[in-house]
Amino acid sequence: MPWLPYISWFAGGLFAANAVPHLVNGISGRPFQSPFASPPGKGLSSSTVNVLWGAFNAFVAYCLVLRVGSFSFRSTPDAIAAGAGALVMSVMMARVFGRIHGGNLQSRSTKTERS
Length: 115
What we know:
Helices cover 70% and strands 3% of the residues.
């Protein structure tokens, strides 16, 4: 069992998960953090920039998952590899964006205690 495709599929899951918030916010017309903002990852980029960044991430995910090896959604190990990448990126984004947007419970309780 070659392991290189599994690394590619894991990375593809990372990119697929990263595409979602950028596409959703961009299509909704809302500014959102992107690597092109100032400061990168914290400042807001326009909705157009986010749609383009999300589309790029979706394209990279497609290339890494469906064009490397013989990925099959019906294969449990294949799906786990891509799903694990998506889960890792999703948790990381939840933590980072939770700090920025107040979505982390710990940061919310800290803010109410200070008030």
